[in-house]
Design goal:
alpha/beta; 33% helix; 8-stranded mixed beta sheet; Rossmann fold; 8 helices; 246 residues
Length: 246
């Protein structure tokens, strides 16, 4: 099996795995506010929709940090972005939340699309190019690893909740031209991944000299929204310490 075929089959497995449980485990009530812009952009041969939240409403000339928010399978950016809004207002963080297609072929272009979406955000919002981060949950975390490894010179750091690097795809870490700092979060009651599985990802990254922040969440399952405030604050404490070199 080729590397491309193997990777696509892994994406398909993730889509099927999460689609069955996402309604129970991942959804928060949709609350779409007027201070969130819905935008569309053409990237890598396709059209993509994303949400943009600028806490300064265009009134801050100094560049701000930005987080690309990658939701789980079956979820929507209308649910995912609002979970970060209070912290974003407090810390002046630009939030960018794309709608992720549930098709395996998307992964072939995901890193390029992520960069394209952030670049489009820069046309209307002051974003610091040295402080662009990714936070991904579940399937979004799976894609966040692609951003960390295949766009390591663009994203300063990455945080992943409730996902890992599959054993068969450990070789992706060798594609990174920079050791992207990565934070890993896993609940000890996660329905899809064991602590031991995520620890293998942690150990892989550490052995390859990636800076890693690892947090096992006691009495927590796959439901990000259940303790999103705690996860977001810890993730931001980690991400905010990381910058791309000039």
């Amino acid at each position: 099996m080729s590397k491309t075929t193997m990777r696509v089959s892994l994406v398909r497995m993730h889509v099927l795995r999460y689609a069955a449980a996402v309604i129970i485990l991942s959804f928060a009530p949709t609350s779409f506010a007027r201070d969130i812009d819905s935008r569309k952009v053409h990237c890598s041969g396709g059209n993509y929709r994303y949400l943009l939240f600028d806490p300064a409403h265009g009134n801050l000339s100094a560049p701000m940090p930005a987080i690309l928010l990658l939701h789980g399978s079956g979820d929507q950016p209308e649910n995912f972005l609002p979970a970060w809004k209070n912290l974003a207002r407090k810390e002046n963080i630009v939030l960018i939340a794309p709608e992720l297609p549930l098709v395996p072929a998307f992964e072939d272009v995901a890193p390029q699309v992520f960069r394209c979406i952030v670049d489009d955000s820069k046309t209307t919002t002051a974003i610091d190019p040295q402080r662009i981060y990714i936070f991904g949950h579940s399937m979004g975390g799976y894609l966040a690893f692609d951003g960390a490894m295949l766009a390591s010179q663009y994203f300063a750091a990455v945080a992943v909740h409730a996902d890992l690097i599959e054993d068969k795809y450990f070789g992706i870490v060798d594609k990174a031209t920079r050791k992207t700092p990565i934070a890993l979060y896993i609940g000890d009651r996660d329905q899809f991944f064991s602590v031991q599985q995520v620890e293998r990802t942690r150990d892989l990254l550490l052995n390859r000299k990636f800076p890693v922040h690892y947090l096992e969440l006691k009495h927590h399952d796959h439901n990000y929204y259940g303790i999103s405030d705690r996860i977001n604050q810890d993730a931001w404490d980690f991400l905010s310490q990381q910058r791309l070199p000039k």
